[in-house]
Design a protein that fits this description.
alpha+beta; Thiol Ester Dehydrase, Chain A; six-stranded antiparallel β-sheet; 2 helices
């Protein structure tokens, strides 16, 4: 059974830009093909929630190989995008870590609930579970057209 959404559906709104891509890139260090966040559309530091978006397009680098003739957004890239969104929140919550790089510490309880194909906007929601001095755990979920397509717990570590 799918989990309850960690943010209200009203926050899955691509027209409410909190941070555009250039602003996101001021915080996140991934570049090139691994720039997985197009914008942040909601961020509540006190409430511990964030929502970011990624436009999934036919021109994305993975579409020719995964899967030829029927491109499916890879699950590992869903997890990467969600981790970047959660990292954005963490680094704004922990201002003292500005400029630090956060990498994966682990991923738990991952479930993929639907295939994602090009031509959609994917929303990545995160909610703080636990924050320590140099690591975090967030509950993350991905949505397309309001439908939950994946969920995971993401552990990030300052490296």
């Amino acid at each position: 059974m799918a989990a309850e959404p960690i943010v209200p559906a009203s926050l899955l709104d691509a027209s409410t830009i909190v941070a555009d891509k250039p602003k996101v890139l001021e915080t996140l260090q991934q570049r090139g093909r691994f720039e997985m966040v197009d914008a942040i559309v909601h961020m509540d530091l006190e409430g511990g929630t964030i929502v970011g978006i990624k436009e999934i397009t036919a021109g994305d680098w993975w579409t020719h190989d995964h899967i030829p003739g029927r491109p499916l957004f890879p699950g590992v890239l869903m997890i990467e995008a969600a981790a970047q969104v959660c990292t954005y929140h963490f680094l704004h919550f922990r201002k003292d870590l500005e400029g630090q790089f956060v990498g994966f510490g682990g991923v738990d309880n991952v479930r993929f609930r639907a295939a994602v194909q090009p031509g959609v906007t994917m929303f990545f929601a995160g909610r703080v579970v636990r924050v320590r001095s140099r690591m975090f755990t967030y509950k993350a979920q991905g949505f397309v057209d309001g439908q939950l397509v994946f969920e995971a717990e993401i552990l990030g570590v300052v490296v």
